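tool_call: predict_structure(chain=1)
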Amino acid sequence: MTLLSEVEKNYGRLKFFIDGSWVDSGSTHSEPVMNPAKDEVIAEVPFALKEEVDGAVEAAARAFERWKELPTPTRVQYLYKLKHSLEEHLEELSRVTTQNHGKIIDESRGEMRRLVENVESACAVAYTLAKGEHIDLIAPA
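tool_result:
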């Protein structure tokens, strides 16, 4: 049994998230995703075809055109929703991070907590700027 057939049997092939949907790649070229702590395959990642990359870039450009027209308070609500989802799935995300990087679970939990704090900071900055205030940044000496 080849490594690739083992992946397909037990783990599955990752999909791309393009234009709001998970899509299978048409690529025949892929690589295994390894759990470095256990030296085992956890998934298979396809190498995107040029057409798939172009489609993803075009979808992102269309999404940005809609996004940039949204008022800041509406955008911030999406960030709060992201923050809530990160908190709700913090343990699961921590375990996936550990599995992908071979980190100890406490290190992954800390990394996920810092991610939530970064999203909170982005919310605060967005509201500050929306009120017409500015943030003075002092460069380190």
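agent: The helical segments are 3-10, 50-67, 72-88, 90-101, 105-130. Proceeding to next step.
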